[in-house]
Amino acid sequence: MLSNPPPKIQPSSIRESSKNPVSKSGRNRLLVLVLFLIALSVFGGQPARLFGHICHGRSSLASWSGSPGEIYWEQCMPAVNNVECGRIIVPKDYFNPDAGTASIALGRYKATKHPRKGSVFLNPGGPGGAGTKMATAKGDVMAKLIGDDWDLIGFDPRGIGSTRPATRCFSSPSEDIVFFANTVIEQGITVSSISNLSSPLLYDQLVEQHRQFLALKQTQAELCRKNMGDELRYMGTAGTATVVRDIDFMAKVIEGKDEKINYWGGSYGSILGAYLVNMLPPSRIGYVAIDGIANPIIWANEPSHKWPINWVADAEKTYQMFLQDCSKAGPTLCPLAKHKDEHWKNLQRRLEEFFDATARNPIPVPFGNRPGFLTSGGARGMLEIFLQQPTVWPTAARAFASAMSGNATELYNYIVRPMPGSPSLPWPTVALNKDLVRLAVTCLDSPRPASKEAFPTAEDLTDQGLKALREVSEHFGMSTGISEPDGGCQYWPVDGPERFTGPWNASLEREMLIADPITPKASGLLINSLMPNSSVIIIQDGPGHCSLALPSLCTAKLQRAYFAGQVPKNGTVCGVDVSTFPDEESERLLMQSLSVEDRELLDALKGIRESMVEARFGFVF
Ligand SMILES: *[C@@H]1O[C@H](CO)[C@@H](O)[C@H](O)[C@H]1NC(C)=O
Ligand SMILES: *[C@@H]1O[C@H](CO)[C@@H](O)[C@H](O)[C@H]1NC(C)=O
Ligand SMILES: *[C@@H]1O[C@H](CO)[C@@H](O)[C@H](O)[C@H]1NC(C)=O
Ligand SMILES: *[C@@H]1O[C@H](CO)[C@@H](O)[C@H](O)[C@H]1NC(C)=O
Ligand SMILES: *[C@@H]1O[C@H](CO)[C@@H](O)[C@H](O)[C@H]1NC(C)=O
Prior knowledge:
Blueprint: E1 16-17, H1 25-42, H2 47-51, H3 59-62, E2 71-75, E3 83-91, E4 101-109, E5 118-123, H4 131-146, E6 150-155, H5 173-180, H6 184-187, H7 200-228, H8 231-234, H9 240-255, E7 261-266, H10 268-279, E8 285-291, H11 296-301, H12 308-311, H13 315-329, H14 344-360, E9 363-365, E10 372-374, H15 376-387, H16 393-404, H17 409-415, H18 434-445, H19 458-471, E11 512-519, H20 522-530, E12 535-543, H21 553-563, E13 572-574, H22 584-593, H23 596-617
Parallel strand pairs: 1-2, 5-6, 5-7, 7-8, 8-11, 11-12, 12-13
Antiparallel strand pairs: 2-3, 3-4, 4-6, 9-10
The structure holds 2-acetamido-2-deoxy-beta-D-glucopyranose (5 copies).
């Protein structure tokens, strides 16, 4: 049900301009180039880390304004082979022409094979992932998944990346980092011992941590209110329904108003995909593939503080797979095992003892991203993230084994952010604003408690977490705060222009393609069951979040065939092609056994996974 009437603003005057509309552009471009070169020399040839992708460095163009429907494309700076960067002006509010305009950043990887079939819009997830980067930095690898006869269009959704206006609540990146430093939002909730959830001492500890959580969320929302005011409603924080309107609008401008919308989205991109096919008339929808499915019904209909229990549905199963694979691999490949084929429960016992010991005594980390300490909540939360990414299980095992033997630096560095301006860091860094951008999207998508009386208390959140620990995942029921920082929407100062809450049973002209690994596959099956004649599901027989978390040539080829017009058989099961703890010899044999084309595809899949991990966590691991 739409909370508002259908949109009135459509692209009326479609003008494609190849000229840069900013008159001072030449000068500005020169300035940006000079700054870029200075950065290049100062930061040792790693400007990408500082600026994000090159498209993001062009602040001169960010202020470009025009009327809705105006678009331009030009060479990215520096140039990327076969890629264009651009901007499109869209209505800030599709229901209110007086609200002004927003400017969406675009990246386009052009079809290399002709005839060209059209454009596919990409969303790498997050929410908060800058989609331009997926097209500009990973366009060539995405083309291996989708096909080289499509233009691949990445865009930074509202409030994100180079799209303007941007979400800004803190006055500087340092203020953002200091605000979260050493809090439960950065470090997760510590459950001092999961062995006795009835302990009153534990209950009190959890309530105290949730009080801190609530106070932080309230403070953050107040800052956003003050720094963005009503702009927050449109700009920084358009909900998913508005992003669907944007895609519809962009597709009309770019391909013409009668051409259908084609889309590929992973993780949060699957939520956007489900909104897309269900919100717009079926006649607008062309090829749509979604991967790593999150449940859109819960997303749109339950307050966000109630979501966490859903994020851990298969966490225990995946934990067991991780430990079993580790012990099968043995200590050289997985140092958490003492010997090959040690019972996985021994590994689990040692890890759990480590979490309990760390709850009593956090581990000092003097020489990490920042001087600090590793908490049990942080370690457990990070394990929950690692479990979703089987490709990096060897990295996870190494970081945990090192922490368990007293050196927590590596593990800690995955969790906490360095201060901006720190000297060249050996560690990946979590994107600024990750929590904020997610909040901005989720708070406009989910229903918010109507009155102060309905606001969840620290006790409510504790009870809910304990329920998740008791009934769904005994080890990770309260540990999703780092990966999925949800909740706190009761303090969010504004509602969006539009919320979409279903129904989710659209009848499409062409089936939507759903891909999901077995852990978890429930949400994929749910969408498939709601659209039995309008979707097909591929189930990948391996762990992880998104089929790309552990590459499968079979899944990838079916996706590519789909975009070439061949709908796979519903319920097809695909194996994976990479083992979780690969040794050099078997890697070599695998590569030898593959055709050149398959090898390239496998490499491409690894590249796409990185793009999605970066969209979600702000860094690649
Ligand atoms: C758990 O804690 C409660 C309250 O302290 C206590 O009554 C109970 O015996 C404990 N259970 C176990 C198995 O230790
Ligand atoms: C701790 O681990 C980090 C990262 O692996 C390493 O750089 C550092 O040298 C180690 N510290 C000690 C005291 O071994
Ligand atoms: C979809 O579900 C809604 C409400 O649940 C129902 O009214 C409608 O008839 C369904 N549409 C289709 C195409 O099945
Ligand atoms: C799906 O198609 C079958 C066979 O044509 C039909 O009987 C059924 O009603 C359809 N279901 C939906 C939900 O449209
Ligand atoms: C499609 O496949 C899934 C997974 O096997 C199954 O649950 C579902 O019932 C199938 N749908 C139809 C319409 O056969």
